[in-house]
């Protein structure tokens, strides 16, 4: 138990049990999770969350993007609420904590406040954002981007997953399955937003510290590159006459590696998804499609490198035609000092060791920054591992993070 002088009791056992029960939805070998957005597993995870939240008296609601809210009513419901939470969807070969810990920590923190018989002036809304990962439907952060007005909700209706399912149809299926949950308009302005999330990096563990007081998030840009050639017979077509989409893709990626070479090793460049059609060993490919994930903390560098992607790919083409589409652009974000100070103070009050640090991963919080004072609480990730089945934070660490959040929520909700 994390002792709370003010009467709030975060229950380590209850919180851990819920995390492990949720991890069974989409469990994969090695203690991992594969729970993509808008799948039946996602539906089941939302129902499991509701089964814990509704008996507490939290009021559920869902908006047009499927963002799910659970409201703890304050003594003055007219005041802008405190928003807290994260996402429930995972990477295809993800872990048991990325995203979902933030949602369950918010539930645990609000439950600790209510069980202590404490009221708060402002209401507190727990949120589970739709499709943060972008693993099934790219890009990520669709729910928080639509909520914050960054993109209109219909932007992604036609986005398809690898089975040809459309985002708009899958979203409609989810909303139909949750017809029993009251609807709410898309978007509102919170008083503040606090997102608990695992660090997904090695710093806290390496320095023996407990809580990350996140100062900001680096910028991210996603692109999809399509290279169109011509199918040909692998045994008869002369190499000199081929329009081989795979060969030109290889040239394009080599050229992008040169564009993104960075002696300081700050820039991040990832080709995580490659698709080849018709994907037959004895047919020259006429279509190659690959993803680009580019990240840097400096907006100018991210702009310069990202804006050069299309020209770099074009210049690498020998016989094929390339199209480059940008699907995601999140600017570097800086978190509000007031929220950072509240997280640091709560950590120290609990005898924990905090560290101010940036986030290499993007988060829904990035899109709340223009809307309201925003901050994030990190807990350590064992070995810095994430987006991997071995992702792990201990029962004590998840409970400590929830205890810090409970104090931060109370402080903000009474301000
Ligand atoms: O990709 C990211 O940075 C986040 O973890 N989804
Ligand atoms: Mn995440
Ligand atoms: Mn993630
Ligand atoms: Mn995130």
From TrEMBL:
Source taxon at top rank: Bacteria
Name of the protein this chain belongs to: M20 family metallo-hydrolase
InterPro entries hit by this protein: Amidase_Cbmase, Peptidase_M20, Peptidase_M20_dimer
Residues annotated as domain Peptidase M20 dimerisation: 216-314
Alphabetical UniProt keywords: Hydrolase
Keyword Hydrolase: yes
Record's signal peptide: none
């Amino acid at each position: 138990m994390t002792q709370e002088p003010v009467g709030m009791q975060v229950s380590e056992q209850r919180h851990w049990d819920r995390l492990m029960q949720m991890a069974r939805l989409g469990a994969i070998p090695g203690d991992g999770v594969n729970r993509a957005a808008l799948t039946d597993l996602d539906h089941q995870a939302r129902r499991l969350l509701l089964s814990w939240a509704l008996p507490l008296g939290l009021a559920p609601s869902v908006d047009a993007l499927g963002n799910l809210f659970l409201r703890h009513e304050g003594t003055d419901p007219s005041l802008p609420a405190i928003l807290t939470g994260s996402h429930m969807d995972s990477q295809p070969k993800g872990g048991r904590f990325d995203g979902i810990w933030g949602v369950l920590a918010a539930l645990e923190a609000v439950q600790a406040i209510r069980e202590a018989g404490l009221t708060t002036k402002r209401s507190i809304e727990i949120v589970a954002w739709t499709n943060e990962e972008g693993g099934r439907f790219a890009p990520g952060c669709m729910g928080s981007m639509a909520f914050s007005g960054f993109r209109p909700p219909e932007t992604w209706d036609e986005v398809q997953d690898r089975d040809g399912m459309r985002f708009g149809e899958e979203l409609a299926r989810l909303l139909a399955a949750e017809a029993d949950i009251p609807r709410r308009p898309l978007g509102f302005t919170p008083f503040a937003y606090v997102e608990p999330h695992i660090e997904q990096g090695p710093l806290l563990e390496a320095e023996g510290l407990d809580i990350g007081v996140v100062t900001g998030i680096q910028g991210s840009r996603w692109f999809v590159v399509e290279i169109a050639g011509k199918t040909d017979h692998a045994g008869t077509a002369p190499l000199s006459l081929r329009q081989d989409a795979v060969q030109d893709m290889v040239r394009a990626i080599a050229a992008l590696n040169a564009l993104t070479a960075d002696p300081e090793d700050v820039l991040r460049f990832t080709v995580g998804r490659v698709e080849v059609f018709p994907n037959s060993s004895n047919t020259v490919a006429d279509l190659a499609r690959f993803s680009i994930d580019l990240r840097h903390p400096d907006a100018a560098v991210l702009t310069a490198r990202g804006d050069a992607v299309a020209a770099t790919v074009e210049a690498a083409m020998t016989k094929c035609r390339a199209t480059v589409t940008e699907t995601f652009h999140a600017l570097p974000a800086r978190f509000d000092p007031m929220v950072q100070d509240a997280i640091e103070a709560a950590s120290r009050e609990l005898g924990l060791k905090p560290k101010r640090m940036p986030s290499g991963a993007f988060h829904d919080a990035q899109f709340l920054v223009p809307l309201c004072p925003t901050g994030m609480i990190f807990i350590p990730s064992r070995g810095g591992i994430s987006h991997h089945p071995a992702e792990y934070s201990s029962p004590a660490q998840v409970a400590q993070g929830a205890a810090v959040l409970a104090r931060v929520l109370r402080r903000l909700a009474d301000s």
